[in-house]
Design a protein that fits this description.
With about 375 residues, this protein is an alpha+beta fold. The protein folds into two domains: about 5-70 and about 105-175 and about 275-375, FAD/NAD(P)-binding domain (3-Layer(bba) Sandwich), CATH 3.50.50.60; about 180-270, D-Amino Acid Oxidase, Chain A, domain 2 (2-Layer Sandwich), CATH 3.30.9.30. Helices cover about 35% and strands about 30% of the residues. The longest helix has about 30 residues, at about 325-355.
């Protein structure tokens, strides 16, 4: 017997759909409410570490995820300049264990499609254009409002509704994402044959320049610089900016600039960081994923941490007989220190770049946090 029989989930991102899949597979009635009117076809690339891939296997989607992405091993660190000198070739820790690649790049919209289809296939109901706008919890359940109208009574409400979570606000958690001072340009481009794993360039006019393969013929390229108000620029202007600000970077960046000049969609966002102190729940309402924590993607653990939140929470809910304090204590003991370590390390990597700290051991910090993540959540 599970601790819950009927669960509402706000948000259809990776954390929300992962929770929906695991609960529905266990026979729990699940309603997912997504505020967006339709599944979004837009999105940048995503880097996934082995511990994320292990969760996909537990969800039952690994066999579909793997061929849809580009698995790779290791990380290359390069320097600016005409030779694009390789500074280090770091062996990735297999954070998911020996059965999975160390990392994988793929397109976010493709991953979203796979998770949504599987959630619906195992019985979760997903409603778009449905925003959770109210929630009143008592000792036995939660009365949920969607689009300002009653949506039903549930044993639990999971807030997986992203950085600017409505559920987080509804339960009185004041923590909000804070800008780190960095902004990132991202674009999908063609993959040169010699790009077989993520490469990061440190130094030069940008804090970080890099690229990650996402398929046999595709990759996404990114430039990280000082946060600016650049959200309203056109694709043409954004591509021009990426071309101009990447002139110090060579090697595959020559091909990247050619693709940018030919025309491609460019996305710009700021890096943020936050983590909600324990508890992440208020009674029978809990936040997970980006609603509970966010960090710069400097060690590519953001999605993995949201997936782990969902995996640990649903494991406990399925094994327990009641939603009680012992369940929440176990959840926070397994999730808060791990998420905190990722946020701290990710922010530190970015701050070293902002401070121009030439003596910082970026490779050592990346390798060290990967070793921590190799221990199961």
């Amino acid at each position: 017997m599970t601790a819950v029989r009927k669960v509402a989930i706000a948000g259809s991102g990776v954390a929300g759909l992962a929770a929906a899949i695991q609960l529905a597979k266990a026979g729990v009635e699940v309603d997912v409410f997504e505020s967006e009117p339709v599944p979004s076809p837009l999105g940048s690339g995503i880097s996934l570490q082995g511990n994320a891939l292990r969760v996909f296997d537990a969800l039952g989607v690994w066999e579909k995820v793997r061929p849809a992405g580009y698995p790779f091993e290791g990380l290359t660190l390069r320097a600016p300049g005409p030779d694009a000198t390789i500074v280090a070739e770091l062996p990735d820790v297999k954070t998911g264990g020996p059965d999975y690649p160390a990392g994988m790049g793929m397109e976010r919209p493709v991953l979203a499609e796979i998770l949504l289809a599987h959630a619906q296939a195992v019985g979760a109901r997903v409603r778009f254009g449905a925003k959770v706008t109210g929630a009143a919890a008592d000792a036995d359940g939660v009365d949920v409002q969607v689009n300002d109208a009653p949506a039903g009574r549930y044993d639990l409400l999971i807030g997986a509704d992203g950085l600017h979570s409505t559920v987080r606000r509804l339960i009185g958690i004041a923590t909000e994402p804070q800008p780190t001072g960095m902004g990132i340009w991202r674009a999908f481009v063609s993959r040169p044959a010699d790009v077989e794993r993520t490469a990061l360039y440190y130094g030069g006019p940008m804090y970080i320049a890099g690229y990650t393969p996402t398929g046999e013929h595709t990759m996404y390229a990114f430039l990280v610089g000082k946060a600016q108000e650049r959200f309203s620029v056109t694709d043409e202007e954004a591509a021009r900016v990426m071309c101009e600000e990447s002139q110090a970077y060579h090697g595959p960046w020559e091909s990247i600039r050619a693709d940018l000049a030919a025309g491609t969609h460019v996305n710009y966002t700021w890096f943020t960081q936050h983590i909600v102190d324990a508890p992440w729940n208020r009674g029978r309402i809990v936040v997970i994923g980006d609603a509970a924590h966010s960090c710069p993607p400097t060690i590519a653990q953001g999605a993995a941490q949201g997936l782990e939140d969902a995996a640990v929470l649903t494991e406990l809910l399925i094994a327990a007989d009641a939603v009680d304090q012992s369940l929440w204590d176990a959840f926070h003991a397994r999730r808060l220190p791990r998420a905190q370590a990722v946020v701290d390390a990710s922010v530190q990597l970015g701050q070293w770049q902002i401070d121009g700290d030439r003596d910082a051991d970026a490779g050592g910090l990346i390798f060290g946090i990967a070793q921590q993540m190799a221990q199961p959540a």
